[in-house]
């Protein structure tokens, strides 16, 4: 496995030390070439070393590397406690919440590299056992939990989800994370009035944690987002909510694709539509899962499969009707959203005309005032496609609308769109083109405002 990296043993050792520093594994700071040589020759690494080594190899090879691939079982006693999937869900929730509340730990988490190794999903037995694990967990408080607490979590999640669409993930994320840490964790540790109530509360908590993950993703805090998504997935499994698990896996696939990991994106997207995650979902949610799977396939070079997934997503959304009992989490997914993701898929496939058409459809069908962040990002992409077609003036006109839409938006993805504007305009910057100079100055001003 190490041979695949093309690295020498000293380079592997240096990379292990870098990853160890990010996660605070001080016992590995002195890793040397000799340690690597011993591991290769069969000496079993101890403590957190196996997981750090997996993560190091995953980053180099741009795909998840499992413990089994490096000759270590997932049941290795030293490695097992550190596995995210084996850490108790409520313990993980409290710990992640503390990281967000403590400034030093939050800065460390915000700066941590995105863990490709963390994208390895557990086996089927883990999913099958999840509801029973939750049922058998002892209560940590005597508070009785009923439908009132479930509704409270749902209302707060809806508020922050809609705020995210308007103002971006940088705005308000800390408040949601504090609510999850202070209130939701307490509810999850309470005494439930019924098994139905327990499942409902765990599902509501999962959606709240998922929104925190999505806001972290939008804020470009990618490792924090991955950890929130993983935690949300664990809660969904303990709620026995297959479509909700599919929804979260779809978000994880979206993030992996955006960060340039097509193989991981394909695997996560395939998991999002696996069995009950797709069959029990409403047509609207199926369309959302399907269009992200289409983009994952496109980034992986699977053109025919990507087009087929797009057509299926179109059919699913067409089947959605006003009488469907859609979950609140898909409130945002309308025709404009499908057009946006379709455009990104066609762009990836090299169909710029088709991408431009779908971006335009997205822009004209969206209620811009309720989706300022997404509207700005769509316009940013649309302008880039126009520029790639050689129509710089049209691109500048579109980007002017994007910059208008960014008023009051605090979003890492919106910021990336502005950085890209300036990058694309760079060859034209000193040619005396007034519209280019105007957009470039406006873009610089927005970059100063968006943190």
UniProtKB/TrEMBL annotation:
Q: Which domain of life is it from?
A: Bacteria
Protein name in UniProt: Tat pathway signal protein
Which species is this UniProt entry from?
Answer: Microbispora maris
């Amino acid at each position: 496995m190490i041979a695949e990296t093309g690295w020498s043993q000293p380079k592997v050792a240096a990379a292990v030390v870098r990853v160890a520093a990010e996660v605070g594994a001080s016992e590995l700071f002195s890793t040397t070439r000799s340690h690597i040589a011993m591991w290769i020759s069969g000496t079993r690494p101890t403590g957190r070393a196996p997981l750090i080594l997996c993560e190091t190899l995953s980053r180099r090879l741009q795909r998840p590397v499992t413990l089994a691939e490096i000759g270590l079982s997932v049941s290795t006693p030293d490695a097992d406690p550190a596995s995210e999937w084996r850490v108790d869900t409520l313990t993980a929730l409290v710990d992640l919440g503390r990281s967000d509340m403590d400034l030093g730990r939050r800065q460390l988490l915000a700066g941590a590299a995105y863990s490709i190794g963390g994208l390895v999903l557990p086996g089927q037995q883990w999913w099958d056992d999840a509801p029973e694990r939750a049922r058998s967990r002892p209560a940590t408080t005597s508070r009785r939990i009923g439908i009132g607490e479930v509704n409270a979590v749902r209302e707060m999640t809806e508020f922050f989800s809609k705020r995210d669409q308007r103002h971006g993930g940088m705005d308000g994320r800390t408040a949601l994370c504090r609510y999850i840490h202070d209130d939701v964790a307490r509810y999850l540790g309470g005494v439930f009035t019924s098994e139905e109530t327990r499942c409902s509360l765990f599902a509501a908590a999962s959606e709240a944690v998922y929104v925190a993950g999505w806001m972290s993703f939008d804020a470009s805090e990618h490792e924090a987002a991955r950890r929130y998504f993983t935690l949300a997935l664990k809660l969904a499994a303990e709620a026995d909510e297959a479509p909700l698990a599919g929804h979260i896996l779809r978000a994880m696939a979206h993030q992996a694709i955006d960060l340039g990991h097509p193989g991981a994106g394909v695997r996560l997207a395939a998991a999002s539509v696996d069995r009950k995650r797709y069959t029990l979902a409403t047509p609207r949610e199926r369309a959302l899962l399907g269009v992200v799977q289409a983009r994952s396939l496109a980034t992986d070079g699977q053109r025919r499969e990507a087009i087929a997934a797009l057509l299926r997503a179109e059919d699913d959304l067409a089947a959605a009707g006003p009488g469907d009992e859609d979950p609140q989490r898909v409130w945002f997914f309308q025709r404009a959203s499908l057009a946006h993701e379709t455009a990104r898929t066609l762009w990836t496939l090299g169909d710029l005309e088709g991408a431009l058409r779908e971006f335009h459809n997205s822009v004209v069908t969206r209620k811009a005032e309720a989706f300022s962040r997404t509207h700005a990002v769509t316009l940013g992409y649309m302008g880039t496609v126009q520029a790639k077609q050689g129509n710089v003036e049209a691109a500048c006109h579109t980007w002017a609308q994007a910059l208008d839409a960014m008023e009051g938006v605090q979003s890492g993805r919106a910021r990336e769109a502005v950085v890209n504007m300036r990058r694309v305009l760079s060859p034209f910057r000193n040619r005396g083109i007034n519209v280019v100079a105007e957009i470039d100055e406006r873009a610089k001003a927005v970059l100063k405002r968006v943190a």
